[in-house]
Amino acid sequence: MIFWKNFFQNSNINASSEKNFKKLIVLDKTCDKIEFKDIYLSSNKNINLYELEQLCDSVGWVKRPLKKVKIALKNSSIIISLIQKKDANSKLVGFARATSDNGFNATIWDVVIHPDFQGLGLGKVVIHQLIQQLRQAEISTITLFAEPDVVSFYKKLGFIKDPDGVKGMFWYPR
Known about the structure:
This protein is an alpha+beta fold.
């Protein structure tokens, strides 16, 4: 339990509530000047499927049938999205979700940050928020599946690869 307390106390996420959104203080230091990004965190489960599809396309994910994506979202315990608001427009720039047995275990799925917003700590924000909500629900085991090129990112957030030699197993129809 000490690990989780330190995990969230050491978080440098600044947010203030605004209805269903939390405004994040995000600075883009990649250009010559420091620029503020108007990004809000939401746990609203009503996600525009077409915006989500565009976000997934932006990182090169394989297209999935929207009908099945809708079912997956409906069956998710937690959905976190990051929305950039500019004037009257808004854009989905980050997303992740978790499924759970609501007793012991949960799995994090579909963590995606738009390429224009990667490197700003937003992936860390999304994962921290999911873990925080799952721990509040007293979920003790949180798993995820990661592509080889992002395993180091999750290790930095406290995830352990193959703990105690445990291996994930899959069954696929032939």
